[in-house]
Design a protein that fits this description.
Blueprint (H helix, E strand, L loop, with lengths): L2 H11 L7 H43 L1 H26 L8 H41 L6 H8 L1 H46 L1
Helix pairs in contact: 2-3, 2-4, 2-6, 3-4, 4-6
Length: 201
């Protein structure tokens, strides 16, 4: 029986039941567990994806040491960050923690995601500037002649290329974060709110 039907049954019976904390936890566990497990799965996925990213960092370093060094530094920071987020998530026990504690931790995790987007955006710009200016021309040095290289180095061409790459990257990142993180966090918070409404009733 879902929460809506349970509330309706109690209201029709005109009783004022005392909700057992264990039952509340079980309701939250059943309704929020799927979304919660997805968050853990996605953090694990990103952690494993850092392995090919580290290999790509070697390639970027081979193209040019400046963008390569920045990229490798971002991968290392990302490794420790995702490990921290994963430990934070696994410490949340929907079946044992009270509703208030779960709610606070979910809100804190949501802030983590916002911080991640903010600092990730800064990191992306810091990487793309030297990558587009140094990395791509050196990768294409056997294709581009001196005249083409001069055109590419022109400020307007460089800025347009940089803007396109950053906009496309941010759009893709926004879609991924919405689907993978914010939608699931919203589902967990919705389950928590239903429990809180049930307690008030």
């Amino acid at each position: 029986m879902d929460l809506d039907n349970l509330k309706k049954t109690w209201q029709q019976a005109e009783i004022n039941p005392t909700i057992d904390e264990q039952k509340i936890r079980k309701m939250l566990d059943n309704k929020g567990q799927g979304a919660f497990e997805k968050l853990i799965k996605y953090d694990k996925l990103y952690l494993w994806l850092l392995i090919p990213c580290a290999l790509a960092g070697v390639f970027f370093f081979y193209m040019h040491y400046i963008p390569g060094s920045i990229y490798i530094a971002l991968v290392v920071i990302g490794f420790f960050w995702y490990r921290y987020k994963l430990r934070f998530l696994k410490a949340i026990n929907l079946s044992e923690m009270n509703i208030l504690e779960v709610s606070k931790r979910v809100i804190k995790y949501k802030k983590f995601i916002k911080y991640e987007i903010l600092f990730g955006s800064v990191g992306a710009v810091v990487f793309f500037v030297p990558y587009i200016y140094y990395g791509i021309p050196e990768m294409m040095q056997d294709v581009l002649n001196d005249s083409d290289m001069a055109i590419y180095r022109d400020t307007s061409v460089f800025l347009v290329t940089l803007a396109i790459v950053i906009v496309v990257t941010f759009l893709i990142s926004f879609i991924l974060y919405k689907v993978m993180y914010f939608d699931n966090i919203k589902q967990i918070q919705k389950s928590i709110k239903e429990i809180e409404d049930l307690e008030r009733d």
